[in-house]
Amino acid sequence: MVVFCSDLPNDQDMIKALGNVAYPLPLFTDACFTGVGEGGKDLLVAVERKKVPDLVACINDGRLVHQMQKALDNNADVFVLIVEEPYRSDAEGLLAVPRWSPGVRKSELAPVRPTITFSRFEQYLFELDWLAGVVVKRSDNVRQTADIIKALYTNFQKEPDRHQSLRKFYRTPPPIVPLQEPSLVRRAAKELRGIGWERSRVVDEHFPSVLAMCVADVKEWASIPGIGKKTAEAVVKALRGE
Question: Same structural domain for residues 150 and 189?
Fold first, then answer.
């Protein structure tokens, strides 16, 4: 893992948090690394981190847009913004951050200066995501920022279609309900352990009759798509009452 980091003084804490994977250089952004995109294409991922007041200032002066353009000029393919500070909406709906007050043992919410509503700040982040294609992440501190950068690095080391996590959420659509009664072969096959309704369709396509299904040996059952040797052995034993 190699993450190139800005060598500016205000990025030294991030370099320390990243540890031996960080390589300080004069950069156009706070951190960057290479990755893999569609079809194995090389990608350059640029990362900017900002405290909440700094990001609010960017809304007013357009500095973040300038930094995004600079990243684009340096051939960055992906731009990531990490908002590195917890923030909340105060009682008046203003954007506020926790601040420690002298003599108080707990943090109190303090409105960000210049003031801005919480909803406008969230709208800006949404605009960055939706309209500018920026990946927006949030962290509470520099340690979390380092963990996010490492996670992003790991993510971009594989082509998008090689990621398996989201595929667990996919479910094959339910079969279309047939308008005619299933054959006797299919109705018998679906009762066999390891076959069920889905696999009974290929069994029905393979065997012309229930008799042919009952006298078939393990080799023939195992030749049916989707039915392995262990399932074939169990089916033959069940049909022969063993």
Answer: no
**Which of 207, 189, 206, 211 lies closest to 198, judged by CA?**
189
- Backbone φ, ψ for residue 143 (5° rounding): -65, -45
Q: Which domain holds residue 127?
A: 3-161
Q: What are phi and psi of 28, to 5 degrees?
A: -85, -5
| CATH number (domain holding residue 36) | 3.40.50.10130
Sign, Cα dihedral of 32, 35, 37, 41: positive
Count CA atoms within 13 Å of residue 12 on its CB side: 3
| Enclosing H/E stretch for 110 | strand 107-111
Contact 27, 73 (CB under 8 A): no
Location of structure tokens 């089916």: 235
For range 145-161, the mean pLDDT: 92
pLDDT tens per residue, range 172-185? 566 555 556 788 88
**pTM of this structure:** 0.66
Residues 131 and 85 in one domain: yes
Total tally of structural domains belonging to the chain? 2
